[in-house]
């Protein structure tokens, strides 16, 4: 009996020791796994810099996504896809221009691909949708297109910087010029969505501050096909010109119908660069001739940097670059130069955003730098006039507004 008790006690002791060892092993394994996951999430420790890009490659904005992507690839190719001896890997995800799809794509880029830096977003709604996840995960994010004002205002984040434009920059830059060069009374027509409203509001702010009067406004729905009723009502307006904000197919239809209804000869048409965008004018021609527009880049901008960019882009893709191509190109350069400033170590997001904030150079669009208070790009704005040359239209830069800063409020 005594032997049995001794054996039983021995067995219990052995099992207790095994359990303790097992628990220790499990705890050690869990701690190691957590440590590895933490290291994996932080990124930057390997030989590859992972850049995630969220862009629309399907749907209504697919062409913009492709141009942004091609612009990025052109720059990365020019530096052999390297920065400070580290390989640059570009991981692209299709947002489908859908905020919820975009949020899933960003989480995938963070959790599965372990990206170091995020860029992209064409739609402001997409940028707003991912803002909180980017902020809470301390993911450095360089916005390369989405222009909604609040992204660098009420929704500003330490980890979000914008290299493209704001709605305010686009609209405000035309206000004073239009008052001095077009007239003292202006009618406003803009697509009825957030961006159209923001841009036209910025124009009105600057135009009225200069002394101008807004004599009427109309906001057709986004994606409208027939502007007849709106254009007919404009005929009796006592104005010196019409400020219009439309983009894409809306711009094509509005500008063409504006001429068809006889308004072009009555009221000079002014607007944003998207009204007479590089990829639209062949479709709009010749109705676009005579339009004045504000933009931060144009194909015909006569600088050494722009000529080199245009030449390289056309050689690579056998087509003219667009403003989105330029945005992608500059975003890639900003990322590359930030990595270089860090000696290739992007493991600390605080240092990454600091490096981004200190990047400045002369871009094909002109000198650019960041406003450290607003996290927004400081850049030139240009007024262009669309002219008819040998039966085709070309934009000509006729005025430069230097170092335009978004007010950040």
Automatic annotation (TrEMBL):
Residues 48-387 form the Leucine-binding protein domain. Residues 1-19 form the signal peptide. The keyword Signal applies. InterPro entries: BCAA_transport, Leu-bd, Peripla_BP_I. It comes from the Bacteria. The keyword Signal applies. Keywords: Signal. Gene3D superfamilies: 3.40.50.2300. Belongs to the leucine-binding protein family. This is ABC transporter substrate-binding protein. It comes from Pseudobacillus wudalianchiensis.
């Amino acid at each position: 009996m005594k032997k049995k008790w001794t054996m039983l006690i021995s067995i219990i002791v052995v099992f207790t020791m095994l359990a303790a060892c097992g628990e220790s092993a499990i705890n050690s394994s869990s701690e190691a796994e957590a440590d590895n996951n933490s290291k994996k999430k932080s990124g930057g420790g390997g030989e590859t810099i992972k850049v995630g890009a969220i862009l629309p490659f399907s749907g209504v904005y697919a062409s913009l996504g492709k141009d942004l992507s091609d612009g990025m690839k052109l720059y990365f190719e020019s530096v052999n896809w390297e920065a400070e001896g580290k390989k640059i890997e570009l991981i692209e995800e299709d947002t489908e221009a859908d905020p919820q799809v975009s949020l899933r794509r960003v989480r995938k880029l963070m959790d599965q691909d372990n990206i170091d830096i995020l860029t992209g977003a064409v739609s402001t709604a997409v940028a707003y949708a991912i803002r909180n996840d980017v902020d809470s995960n301390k993911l450095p994010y360089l916005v390369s297109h989405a222009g909604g004002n609040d992204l660098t205002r009420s929704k500003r984040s330490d980890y979000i910087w914008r290299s493209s434009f704001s709605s305010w920059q686009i609209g405000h830059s035309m206000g004073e010029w239009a008052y001095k060069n077009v007239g003292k009374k202006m009618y406003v027509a803009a697509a009825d969505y957030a961006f159209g409203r923001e841009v036209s509001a910025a124009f009105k702010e600057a135009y009225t501050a200069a002394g101008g009067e807004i004599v009427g406004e109309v906001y057709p729905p986004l994606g409208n096909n027939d502007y007849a009723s709106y254009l007919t009502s404009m005929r009796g307006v006592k104005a010196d010109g019409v400020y219009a904000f439309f983009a894409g197919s809306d711009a094509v239809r509005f500008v063409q119908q504006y001429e068809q209804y006889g308004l072009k000869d009555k009221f000079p048409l002014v607007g944003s660069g998207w009204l007479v965008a590089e990829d639209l004018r062949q479709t709009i021609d010749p109705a676009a001739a005579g339009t004045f527009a504000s933009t931060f880049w144009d194909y015909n901008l006569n600088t050494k940097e722009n000529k080199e960019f245009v030449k390289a882009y056309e050689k690579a893709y056998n087509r003219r670059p667009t403003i989105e191509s330029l945005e992608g190109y500059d975003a890639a350069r900003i990322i590359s130069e930030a990595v270089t400033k860090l000696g290739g170590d992007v493991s600390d997001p605080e240092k990454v955003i600091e490096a981004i904030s200190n990047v400045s150079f002369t871009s094909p669009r002109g000198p650019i730098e960041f406003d450290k208070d607003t996290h927004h790009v400081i850049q030139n704005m240009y007024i262009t006039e669309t002219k008819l040359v040998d039966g085709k239209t070309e934009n000509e830069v006729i005025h430069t507004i230097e170092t335009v800063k978004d007010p950040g409020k």
